[in-house]
Amino acid sequence: MVIRSYTAIVEKEGAGYVALCPELDVGSQGDTVESATANLKEAVELFLECADSGEVERRLHTQVFVTRFEAAHG
């Protein structure tokens, strides 16, 4: 079994949270940050289990950077 680290970007949306794994473009949601992240982990694991290796390779982005920047506005 191969274990690999992935990124979870979690955003508040309405009464819940939406989570995205940008490496595979897989998303999920939950009532809390923790549940959204756990649901995303499950969704990624199911995708990796069910998708053929070609699909995983096509969707896998290995160079994902999460950063912040400042922007001026009036």
Write the layout of secondary structure elements.
Layout: E1 9-13, E2 16-21, E3 26-30, H1 33-50, H2 53-59
Plain-language structure description:
It comes from Nitrospira defluvii. InterPro entries: TA_system_antitoxin, TTHA1013/TTHA0281-like. This protein is of the alpha+beta class. The protein has a single domain, classed as Double Stranded RNA Binding Domain (2-Layer Sandwich). Helices cover 34% and strands 22% of the residues. The chain has two helices and three strands; from the N terminus they run βββαα. It has helices at 33-50, 53-59, and strands spanning 9-13, 16-21, 26-30. The protein has a three-stranded antiparallel sheet, covered by helices on one side. A hairpin with a 4-residue loop joins strand 2 (16-21) and strand 3. The longest helix is centred in the middle third of the chain and has 18 residues, at 33-50. 12% of the residues are buried.
CATH class: Alpha Beta
CATH architecture tag: 2-Layer Sandwich
Biggest sheet details = 3 strands, antiparallel
Residues in β-strands, percent = 15-25%
Helicity range: 25-40%
- The helix-strand sequence is EEEHH
Number of strands: 3
| Mean pLDDT across residues | 96
Strand order of the largest sheet: 1-2-3
The general outline is globular
Summing up helix and strand content along with how strands pair, one would put the structural category as alpha+beta
The CATH topology corresponds to Double Stranded RNA Binding Domain
**Low-pLDDT regions:** none
Could you tell me the radius of gyration in angstroms?
14 Å
End-to-end distance: 52 Å
> Oligomeric state of the chains?
single chain
Number of helices: 2
